[in-house]
Design goal:
single chain; 357 residues; alpha+beta; Chorismate synthase, AroC fold; 5-stranded antiparallel β-sheet; 8 helices
Length: 357
Amino acid sequence: MLNGNTFGQFFRVTTWGESHGLALGAVIDGCPAQLPLTEDDIQHELEMRRPGKKGITTSRKEPDRVQILSGTFEGKTTGTPISLIVWNKDVDSSAYEKIKVLFRPGHADYTYQKKYGIRDWRGGGRASGRETVARVASGAVAQKLLDKYGIKVLAYTVCLGGIEISKKDLNIIEENPLFCPDEEASKEMLRRLAEVKKAGDSLGGVVEVVASGCQPGLGEPVFGKLDAALAGALMSIGAVKGVEIGSGFQAAELLGSQNNDQITPEGFESNNSGGILGGISTGQDVVVRVAIKPIPSIEIEQKTIDTDGNPATISTKGRHDVSAIPRIVPVCAAMVKLTLADFLLAQVAREHLNTKL
């Protein structure tokens, strides 16, 4: 954990690469053998976060074609480390050359410099949102394990720039440019994105992730809580500033009689717990919401300092998203998939051990 590039204990993922380097990728260790896996399985997920979609994302055009370098044979996992690579194709660092001695407000420039004494100023290096291509690719592999246990993970936009959805049609999510389940709200969001882009500013929003089919019993009761792990996994995404499970912060405004999920012989009557009680899954849908901050790269001039500590101003130009949404939506889903895969293998190991005692 010293260098913070590896996630998970049983289903372990190490990501590598920089935004403007030659490539990015991941090494996955602990994936069980004989799961069906091809590059096409991963590519579908990568298409959802790929840049270059006209009007709403960065103009950087990356094909994001994944290659599986190891860990599969004849279309199945072999139980050995799975190595994935995605080559960077449309790299242009010229816009960053002009501001390389300036710390961009809202970015990790300042903290990376203080920690390491050196930083990759080309698009933020490891701190760039482009690092998440490795997470999404790894999440697609994790989904193959989840498929075996009937677990599905769905993520979608519920708020963007203060515009909230009023209905959920989950059938239109993948066809919607913002992965939004409300057609009318999506149109308002797109109009708001255009306005803010013209002003040289950016927007934040909220993503909801739902995992259905989770068996009861995933998670530990004290320091290995499933909800704590999910929060940590999602907070590891650079643009995420808050996570809530189930009723979340609204629970602070409710009475216990309102927030408790009453239990009948047929099951729970509600799901304010978000499918987790005492850190352990209940068997209900696991429901998580994620607060996404506005993209910090904006054209509006801001105050900052240079690497020598001198005052300066900065206007960040280049190929930037106006909002991390929609491209962060599959990233949030991927981190939930990786967490559930890790906890699922832990539970399988526990059950196997119990049968031996």
